[in-house]
Amino acid sequence: MHRTLMLVGLALAALPGCRGRPAAPPTSRPVARPGLAPQPASRPTDALGRRVEALLARMTLEEKVGQLTQFGEPPADHERWIREGRLGSLLNVHGAAAVNALQRIAVEQSRLKIPLLIANDVIHGYRTIFPIPLAEAASWDPQSVERAARVAAREAAAAGTHWTFAPMVDVARDPRWGRVAEGSGEDPFLGSALAVARVRGFQGRDLGARDTVLACAKHFAAYGAAEAGRDYNTVDISRRALREVYLPPFRAAVDAGVRTVMSAFNEIAGVPATASPFLLRQVLRREWGFWGFVVSDWKSVLELVNHGVAGSAGDAARLALEAGVDMDMQGATYPEHLVRLVRGGVVEVKLVDDAVRRVLRAKLELGLFEHPYTDPALEKKVTLSAEHRAAALEMARRSIVLLKNEGDLLPLDPNRLKRVALLGPLAADRRELLGPWSAKGKAEEVVSVLDALRARLPKAVRLVHASGCEVETCRPADLARAVKLARGADVALLVLGERAEMSGEAASRVHLDLPGDQEELVRRVNAAGVPVVLVLMNGRPLVLTDVVAQSGAVLETWFLGSEAGNAIAEVLLGQTNPGGKLPITFPRAVGQVPIYYAHKNTGRPPSSDRFSSKYLDVGTEPLFPFGFGLSYTRFELRGLGLGATRIPRSGTLEVTVELANVGKLGGDEVVQLYLRDLVASVTRPVRQLAGFRRVRLAAGEKRTLRFRVGPEQLGLVDPAGRRVVEPGAFQLWVGTSSTGGLSARFEVR
């Protein structure tokens, strides 16, 4: 069944409130946008609010601070802390039995019987592991992404988890930063659509249902813009970049009802996010109407001392609470200092009370007071079920991107094969396929590429296997054996890439080529005269210029999780036609980084003129652009049509285009719509994604697609910091990547 995405206008809005230069000209018109209905943390006329207020009135100051305290590495006497009401949340506790044992202390032995809030990093699956988030983004399929988050929530909730630290919605344009693996790539529009999908998947329709978890939009904000791609590093960006690029996915998550937000490790313009009233109070609460609670990242409150904005842990606690951080994760600054600071008149008790209100309301919404315990039988029933594995397989299929297919080398026809050489350090691996942040996934439950090909290839086909090298090391004898096996084979399948821990948190890399001697393996096998299919497993864009040139076909498979091998084997053998598209640009060289499609034109765009914006040694074009991906069939776009050539600033433009499958196989295509504001009061990107649809067509089938472009896609943040639509000419493209496509112009009056 084909999946579609309507244009997500809310996702793109950059919001008002940015201070700057003189007011916009009177020809600009502000963009009206719906906001959340005011829903404060507690209101007397609301049933949950009344329960919160009644409970708050009975709490001691120590018990209040306890609700704002979370430990992932709890103190040795944490059971006494729970019994005394001084610990409200724990993370890294897994399984119904373990959670129930701690919960029993909280709800049966503490004075107020307030249940614990159990949190875990459930990023792309709990026990059934789905593709990493960057891979899921390559599906360009919000419906499937929502389903993946729903499965993860169901398994996590059954194991006693109430809260996940996902989705990570940071826009990331520097692949040196390892956490690109955990997000949705470089684009705020695509990132916003997938942020909404994941929030809905985790939280479901009713937070009180037993199979939902609180979602957490992280890391607020602009963590993905770390200088030099180095994790935890400084961020120094303009307010315009913050509003137009890095904040929209967070706003989309808030509009989708996300109940928690995590403050980031980084600073912005000299102010750490965990101590930023601008981010946490002005933008998040006042402008966006967020009424959930904010949690710090791991020890990020205490790290305000390292940043140099706090002179002590007590100062750090005061700054964070005043800025709007409701819960201190692991840093212990709140439990060790807030009581003293309040009683000494340094911190207002109202700030503590407001934070407690928000935390208590979340616990009530989850139904923890009524249902504090988890059924171990349910955990056993839903964990790694056949239904969940089927969902993981479908998500993995939709996440694979075909980057090269010279001479239609793929798909392989088993009836024409006699000998297949399966080579590379990841060909038989199971552990690395789980990827970073794989929760409770187990390597023995993963299907490897070797497993899957053995199960699918006919007995008449001889499958030979050798690693050739390890991911980062190589013995000459192993390399020689792999090349020997490749000689005489009909095709060599090289499964190469990173270890899982080479992507993710604290996994920044300076060199983005294949680690170790893997490139040498490609060169040796290619020199042996064997057709080479390169199967990549990685958590970030790699620099593949040389190895792609030596490979007949290239599949980007990322880290696909529990069903990785099955999905990859299906694509190799043509049982699945790949339809994924890149959610992030692949550079030709590290020196191009950061590289992204929505760049500015500059006053001297690249040209044959020496004095233009370019390099002496490498071109400015990427190896593979954003939105790129091939198929085993051929698609054509025809008949681009606009409903009008002029529209008012508050109006919408209907765009139609025909998509035809002119090949011999059924398959998926992702049709992408891009815009450019040709003349504006501020410089604009050369293209901006404004809509997309993933469409499945049978061979010979065609379909007319319709898109709508309105103020949310056409607007910008003007020099005065207001979100407006300015009159003028716009260029529009409809294509299958961020380059080329059918084009038309229209005017906004």
Shape: globular
Unreliable runs: 1-42
By helix and strand content, what is the structural category?
A: alpha/beta
CATH architecture label of the largest domain? Alpha-Beta Barrel
Name given to the CATH homologous superfamily of the largest domain? Glycoside hydrolase, family 3, N-terminal domain
Trace the largest sheet across and list its strands.
12-17-16-15-13-14
What would you note in describing this structure?
The protein is of the alpha/beta class and 749 residues long. It folds into 3 domains: 43-378, TIM Barrel (Alpha-Beta Barrel); 400-592, Rossmann fold (3-Layer(aba) Sandwich), CATH 3.40.50.1700; 635-748, Immunoglobulins (Immunoglobulin-like). 29% of the residues lie in helices and 18% in strands. It is built from 23 helices and 27 strands. The strands form 7 sheets. A 6-stranded mixed beta sheet has the order 12-17-16-15-13-14, sandwiched between helices. The protein has a 5-stranded parallel beta sheet with strand order 5-4-3-2-11. Strand 15, helix 20 (518-527) and strand 16 form a beta-alpha-beta unit. It is globular, with a radius of gyration of 26 Å. The two termini are 40 Å apart. The relative contact order is 0.13.
Topology of this structure?
Blueprint lengths: L8 H4 L16 E2 L16 H12 L2 H7 L1 E3 L6 H6 L5 E3 L4 H14 L7 E4 L12 H5 L4 H17 L4 E2 L23 H16 L12 E5 L18 H8 L1 H8 L4 E4 L3 E2 L2 E2 L4 H11 L5 E3 L8 H4 L5 H11 L4 E2 L3 H11 L5 H17 L10 H7 L3 H14 L1 E5 L13 E5 L25 H8 L5 E5 L9 H11 L4 E7 L20 H10 L4 E6 L7 H5 L3 E4 L7 H9 L62 E8 L3 E2 L5 E9 L5 E11 L10 E10 L4 E8 L1 H4 L1 E2 L5 E3 L2 E8 L6 E7 L1
Parallel strand pairs: 2-3, 2-11, 3-4, 4-5, 6-7, 7-10, 13-14, 13-15, 15-16, 16-17, 19-27
Antiparallel strand pairs: 1-25, 8-9, 12-17, 18-20, 20-23, 21-22, 21-26, 24-25, 26-27
Helix pairs in contact: 2-15, 3-14, 3-15, 7-8, 7-16, 7-17, 8-10, 13-14, 17-22, 18-22
